Amino acid sequence: MPKRAVYTVDTLRTVRATLAAVDQAYPVQGAGKLLTLSNPKVNRAAAEMGYLPAILHLAPHTMAGVNVCAWASVECAAGCLNTSGQGGIGLDAAGWNRTQAARIRRTASLALEPGAFAVRLAREIGQHAARAARMGLTPCLRLNGTSDVTWHRTFPDVLLAAREAGVILYDYTKRPTPDAAEHGIDVTYSYPGGSGTAARRYLDAGHRVAVVFATVRGRRLKDQALPAEGLAPWGETFPVHDGDAHDLRFTDPGGVIIGLRAKGKLIGAAPSRKGFVQASRTLAA
Asked: What pTM, to 2 d.p., does this model score?
């Protein structure tokens, strides 16, 4: 059974009000899907590596009235990729479109009906595993596509069933301790800036740390060079792996920096020594 998070009466009231406004602005029939399934014809890199990814997109931070990004920094919230792709097309005055409405509905379901949400999630994970098996691929899943929920604490039974079905679980997180790894989730820490205490904890434990690097804005942003090494706040250097080449972080070695090029609202952001966006040559010093 899911462990229901404890929300205040005011929080739940806000969630219900947000959901009602979304339903009025973007009415739909049916519950819709929780998971976004990968298309091998589009995600060729993953298919060529033998994997079929799926991802869960919630409404990030407090967009749905409940905070699903408890450790988000100001820069992270401001530069969130929630509005990339379909999420940013034709936004209304509230910052919504049909994609955002779907994410708000999922988040509201998680907060208001966790038991029903868990049943739907388990069913869709099973369907994802079956689809991957038919295609001769290994299923993998990111539950925190635009959130940072502690799924291993909220839905441990669902995650156990997913692992037993052969699904590889992986995520980015800003959670300061890598305890999700003890529950079979491959974790990569997202560096928020600052002293790097949590980043060092992850690297010392054999995990990875994702860092956003400033790059020259260009037509082919992915082709801009990343540094070969990053200098951590405590003085050590670590190899930088290109995190834009693919999203399958569990295939990367541990103890490295995953370099991500600035995207969306972060393009052109000035790097700082201990900021969310780092200079193209060093991590915060």
From this structure: 0.91
